[in-house]
């Protein structure tokens, strides 16, 4: 298949799961281009106030940053063929849950990636997903099957 697939990698930023998926798809020779949110936590938090002006009130500081980040996130999710959403166990990824809901509203295929102990709290998100993976290698295998039809 000659199509280049656009895959958006949403969620947890504290582990190398994105690198593992990118390396696995490259090793498999899959025609995939990845995109993601800004994964530098400090930059993501500060972007609104740093670019548009300081804020003394934490609500408005966060609000500015969220809106600037949303320009990137919403644009990349809209352009994605598949959205992979990773939930880690150490931090709550509320933004990832929002990304999953946004992708679902756009009727984008979603693959969730999380440990089994998060199955219950993520049941609604997993219910909207077309696949639930527990390891990055499983995401690579799903992408391989979807893209070239082979196991």
Descriptive overview:
It is a single chain. The chain is an alpha/beta fold and 151 residues long. The chain folds into two domains: 20-34 and 82-139, Rossmann fold (3-Layer(aba) Sandwich); 36-79, no CATH class. The protein has helices at residues 17-27, 41-52, 58-79, 94-105, 123-128, 136-148; strands at 5-11, 32-35, 82-86, 110-113, 131-133. Strands 2-1-3-4-5 form a five-stranded parallel beta sheet, with helices on both faces. β4, α5 and β5 form a beta-alpha-beta unit. α2 (41-52) packs across α3 (58-79). It is globular.
Provide the descriptors you would attach to this structure in a database record.
single chain; alpha/beta; 151 residues; YtoQ family protein; 6 helices; 5-stranded parallel sheet; Rossmann fold; 5 strands; YtoQ_family_protein
Radius of gyration: 16 Å
Share of residues in strands: 15-25%
Question: What structural class do helix, strand and pairing data support?
Answer: alpha/beta
Low-pLDDT ranges: none
| DSSP helix fraction | 40-55%
Mean pLDDT: 96
Main beta sheet, described? Answer: 5 strands, parallel
Number of strands: 5
CATH fold-level name of the largest domain:
Rossmann fold
N- to C-terminal distance: 15 Å
The CATH class designation of the largest domain is: Alpha Beta
The 3D shape can be described as globular
Please write the string of helix (H) and strand (E) elements: EHEHHEHEHEH
Q: Strand order, biggest sheet? A: 2-1-3-4-5
Continuous helix count: 6
CATH architecture of the largest domain: 3-Layer(aba) Sandwich
| Total number of domains | 2
